[in-house]
Amino acid sequence: MQELNKYKDLFHEQVRKVQDQVCRKIQDLDPEVELIEDIWEREDFEGNPGGGGITRVFTGDKVENAGVNTSLVYGKISPEFAKKFGGNADQMWATGVSLIIHPRNPKVPTTHANFRMIQIGDKHWFGGGADLTPYYPIEEDFLEFHSVWEKVLRPYGHYKSMKETCDTYFTNTHRDNEMRGIGGIFYDHFNSGDLEKDFEMVSKLSEEFIPSYFPLAKRRIETEWTPEDEEFQLHRRGRYVEFNLLHDRGTKFGLESNGRTDSILVSLPKRCMYSYKYAPKPDGPHAKMMEYYKPKDWV
Amino acid sequence: MQELNKYKDLFHEQVRKVQDQVCRKIQDLDPEVELIEDIWEREDFEGNPGGGGITRVFTGDKVENAGVNTSLVYGKISPEFAKKFGGNADQMWATGVSLIIHPRNPKVPTTHANFRMIQIGDKHWFGGGADLTPYYPIEEDFLEFHSVWEKVLRPYGHYKSMKETCDTYFTNTHRDNEMRGIGGIFYDHFNSGDLEKDFEMVSKLSEEFIPSYFPLAKRRIETEWTPEDEEFQLHRRGRYVEFNLLHDRGTKFGLESNGRTDSILVSLPKRCMYSYKYAPKPDGPHAKMMEYYKPKDWV
Predict the structure, then answer these.
(1) How far is A224 from chain B (nearest CA, A)?
(2) Catalytic status, residue A112
(3) Mind telling me how many Å the CA of A299 is from chain B's nearest CA?
(4) Which structural domains are found in chain B, ordered by start?
(5) CB < 8 Å to A104, chain B
(6) What is the pLDDT of residues A168-219, one digit of tens each?
(7) Residue A5 banded pLDDT, cuts 50, 70, 90
(8) Which one, of B42, B33, B119, B44, lies nearest residue B68 by Cα?
(9) What is the dihedral of CA A110, A115, A119, A122, to 10 degrees?
(10) ipTM of the shown complex
């Protein structure tokens, strides 16, 4: 327990560092972007101080909306909550960073990542990942994103399984199993038995988010786009909302456990669109993009 | 069973009639509106013909998007499906109309209604209701809507309970119990034991949708609106999507039972908006409108 407490602080430090770095990168991508920072606190199940978090929300012309949140929560939990994790522990802590970026330019993908460490009773694990949701078929960008994750996970041997978990997880089962985007990596309840090694791996993952996304975003952020490109983007953002509200376990868990609604739903895009039986023009770039929303071997 | 089969056909006739009438009213409200009609069929659990439906979807400048759907489905059901209804029946039928109208003008409320009759094994019941989601505080319109339902339900003594069920049901529990709109009536598993009387009541309800909505819509459809009115509308439409995807049992049930996704999600507004901690300007009409999104005695 004492050793785990050390990791709680270390991991919290790590996610705070990542939060600051990612925020600077967003401001670099869109120097005019507006930032709101909210620092919040919570009580635990018994009404004692239970930690809190820092929510940072960006709105701008280039980065239409983004959220970069960290939290460190701890304390007593309800028996009902404990049961969800298959035990009768009464104490927990969790710390992590979660982020989402919805750029305005349809040629810059939406991206999402989160890295968290959790302990309930005497069990601990890591969860998280990073995934890309592009709206324009620029294959070299997709390859670059996946390559970063493959490279950092190579020494640990987890790329293939984490990539497959991501493909399966971010899927709109109610839309003929269309993926939300082109995947990335995802893992949950990760605990290899070697805490030091797991900690090292997840810390590295959290540091690789920046090189996985910002170089490609920077390359595309000033490129031209057409009204059709935007229409397709808004339609796919609608699918993004469908996934997040219908299927995402993190959203569901957050809302059900009385999390801070505005911090959780900051994942939704500022604008989106729904159309009956939407289909892109045949043979165009958007029809081509549709072919990428299914599992694919990237590296 | 034979008597119930008679009601299956009678109720299907009734909902088809309502569908046609509502569609004409939508075309009257927006003469330029485009209509797509899709006639679909389904198979039952054993792959035999299991009925189908008629989906009608409207898109226009005044009626931004609308859907008016009927279906009559029947046949064998899976044991898993039967269990949800607390039995081991292997046959069912269900018929109903469900409709949603999202006008472009923020001074014309969004509305939703559905009227359905279901039999599983030897149990049958009615479900449905009608509710209003305005975006501008025009109290006389709200009163008119509720008055129609109060009047038709008066002889049956069900207005109060159906109004309260509606207030409770269409609530975003994750948004401090804000209602989706200003309510209306809602009922489920309705069966008083007097089939003839229940049938008569629900048929009347289905006929009162037109007088409850179209007169007020017609009065407001040509009125002016400001960009702030539209921004507030788009924000509230975002809340509408949150309700439908997070909480609506009909949506959940439809998607889980492998319903036709595009027919189910036609309930979503064409455009919507999400903003972090959105709040309307104090003291304006939109701040006033916020006060209506909670249970209120109307008549």
Answers:
(1) 23
(2) yes
(3) 34
(4) 2-290 (3.40.1500.10)
(5) none
(6) 999 999 999 999 999 999 999 999 999 999 999 999 999 999 999 999 999 9
(7) confident
(8) B33
(9) 120
(10) 0.95
